[in-house]
Write a structure and sequence with these properties.
By secondary structure, the chain is α+β, with helices and mostly antiparallel strands. It has 16 helices and 20 strands. It has two domains: 129 residues, Beta Barrel (OB fold (Dihydrolipoamide Acetyltransferase, E2P)); 331 residues, Bira Bifunctional Protein, Domain 2 (BirA Bifunctional Protein, domain 2). Helix 7 packs across helix 9 and helix 14 runs antiparallel to helix 15.
């Protein structure tokens, strides 16, 4: 059926060209979004607008149709006696989905519907494929994600979600700029992966004949800007992790990272409260939100709970042997694959799940061994000034007082390398026993350029990272990260090519 409809549309295209009419027009003076036009209705006002033809209802020499754009729809009225026989007959060739420009005047029908009395109609783009499900909504999830343009055409709530996401970014920028932060841009290709845990994507630069890595995080470059005297900087950045997909993970994602000289993690707590509350008010007009059937009150200050104290209560202290940690956690019913930084979020989710699903929660006081870039507490070198923010069972933000001691930073980087080397040797041992470790061409190394920058002196600072995609999920009440990313990564479709 779709092939037949497509063939019919192509035949109509040839009819138009046979009449020397251009089916793919150019400039059209669209004055305002359709929703604005309807909301600002004035009887008899001349208007010029454009959108997709979404419905046609003919009655002899009178046709009512609907025209839609991203903001809404408006009814248009075409009278044969008003626009002429040739123009009226031409309109009959137009199909649902065609993009039209119309000029005319506003009036209201007897039922009170705002309508454009058309004086002129222009074909701006001929649609050669029929729209999905006749505008009743696109339901197939696979098609929705793979062909997001169809999803946007057919599903008004989806369009609203992405308009709101854009407003979210504007709100975040506005809050930071009011506080004197400067937006900057840092490289997306790094010679050494760093700034976050995770497996990077590898690419190759031909002219330099060297491998490069898509950034895990912009952190190390942003802190170099603090060294250079830019005291408040932020970047709304795209970052990449060569890892799995889930309802909360996409390999390419948007992060907000902000750094404030002469601040600390307490400074960042106040900042993230302002950022999220400001965004909630801008998008929703309230601090009362709903996510996954649960209601949350975002009114600050938010509750805090100590990671170090909670683990000590179940018999674990910093520096405990990995096997001992595993045993204690399994006894408590907590399932993680070793207490590495990559498993840290899963551990926190399980330990604090009841609290993270009912209110915003700052989990503070992480072990130093799990936080290589964070400053230790003055009275306890084994615990850092760090927090992670959880809302609705999701980690939304991560922040700490930045470590600015270059000697201690080098020591921690080298300790990380030793741990990584030990893990590789252990994996190789398992491989000899018949268990295959995950293949990886990545050999970690100390980022000497970053250490050198610290040696020139970096002011004490607070640093903050916010997962923008997850924040969008939370504020827009979307169940999956794919629902707030316009083009999420999907498994390639099978092909005979």
């Amino acid at each position: 059926m779709k092939n037949e409809q497509t063939q019919t549309r192509r035949e109509k295209l040839e009819v138009l060209r046979g009449k020397r009419l251009e089916p793919y027009g150019g400039l059209f003076p669209k004055q305002e979004p359709i929703q604005s036009l309807v909301a600002g209705y004035t009887e008899g006002r001349s208007v010029h607008t454009a959108g997709r033809l979404s419905a046609k209802r003919g009655h002899g020499g009178l046709t009512f149709s609907d025209l839609r754009d991203y903001s809404g729809k408006v009814q248009i009225c075409l009278k044969q006696e008003r626009i002429g026989d040739s123009a009226y007959q031409l309109f009959e060739v137009f199909d649902l989905g065609d993009i039209l420009g119309v000029s005319g005047t506003l009036f209201k029908t007897k039922t009170g519907e705002v309508t454009i009395q058309v004086d002129r109609v222009t074909l701006l783009a001929k649609a050669l494929r029929p729209l999905p499900e006749k505008w009743h909504g696109l339901k197939d999830v696979e098609i929705r994600y793979r062909q997001r343009y169809l999803d946007l055409i057919a599903n008004e709530p989806v369009r609203t979600t992405f308009v709101q996401r854009s407003k979210l970014l504007s709100s975040l920028r506005a809050t930071l700029e009011r506080q004197g932060f400067l937006e900057v841009e840092t490289p997306m290709m790094h010679s050494i992966p760093g700034g976050a845990a995770g497996e990077p994507f590898v690419t190759h630069h031909k002219a330099l004949d060297t491998d490069l890595y898509l950034r895990l995080a912009p952190e190390l470059y942003l802190k170099q800007l603090l060294v250079g005297g830019l005291e408040r900087v932020y970047e709304l950045n795209r970052s990449f992790r060569n890892e799995g997909l889930s309802t909360q993970h996409n390999p390419e994602f948007t992060m907000l990272e902000a750094y404030q000289a002469y601040g600390n993690y307490e400074t960042m707590m106040r900042l993230v409260e302002e950022l999220i509350c400001g965004a909630a008010k801008a998008l929703l007009g309230t601090l009362e939100i709903e996510f996954r059937g649960q209601r949350f009150d975002l009114t600050p200050p938010w509750e805090r709970v100590s990671f170090a104290d909670t683990l000590e209560e179940i018999g674990l202290k910093p520096g405990a042997a990995p096997d001992a940690i595993q045993t204690v956690l399994e006894r408590k019913g907590v399932k993680v694959k070793g207490l590495t930084r990559s498993q840290l979020v899963r551990l926190v989710e399980q330990l604090f799940e009841p609290k993270t699903k009912t209110k915003p929660l700052f989990v503070v006081d992480y072990w130093t061994e799990l936080s290589p870039l964070a400053k230790s507490k003055p009275d306890d070198p084994l615990v850092t000034e760090r927090f992670e923010l959880f809302i609705g069972g999701m980690e939304v933000a991560n922040a700490y007082s930045e470590l600015n001691d270059p000697i201690e930073q080098r020591r921690r980087f080298e300790a990380q390398l030793e741990d990584a080397q030990g893990s590789r040797l252990k994996a190789q041992g398992k491989s000899r026993k018949g268990l295959q470790p995950r293949a990886s061409s990545l050999e970690r190394q100390v980022d000497e350029a970053f250490i050198e920058a610290l040696e020139y002196g970096m002011p004490p600072a607070g640093g903050l990272g916010v997962g923008v995609d997850r924040l969008a999920m939370l504020l827009l009440n979307q169940p999956s990260i794919k629902d707030v990313i316009l083009f999420p990564l999907l498994k390639p479709e099978s092909s005979n090519k």
